[in-house]
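Hey, can you fold this one?
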Amino acid sequence: MMNKEVEYNIDFDRAQNLIELAKKKQVTISSCESFTAGLFSATLASIPGASSVLKGGFLTYFTEMKTTLAHVDWDLIQQKGVVSKECAMAMASQTRKLTNSDYSVSFTGNAGPSSMEGKPAGLFYCAIATKEQTKFFEYQVDLERNHLRGYAVNQMIQELIHDLEHAK
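Sure. Predicted structure:
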């Protein structure tokens, strides 16, 4: 058994800002997580008051879970792969619909250490879905896998804050 300390470098102050802003705007958040393995939801849930905005989500680490839980089309996965903007967008939009949340964020990618689907370690895609639109984010970052996961969570927390600050 590994006795290695795991560190993610999560910005909990930023996560608290997101929870407070979502409460103020009276919106809900859900997630569909693959390579982050629930770290986004766990981060938000660690903030007091999260239960008023965090609806839940899906942990879809295995490819088949993306189709089973989040209803991502199998043909899309076969054509584009799970490490793709198309998969990230489908994960976010399907999860938003299934959870009936205002915002849904997704995480899919390759945390390493080796290539996956011919795509390098450190490549990941995230998406944020609302009723009006789904937008994606592409990153290629050279970090150790758990720091990469934390980096992804921090990035999407910041993107959600930005979206909420500019929402009507």
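The chain has a mean pLDDT of 94. Let me know if you want another pass with a different chain boundary.
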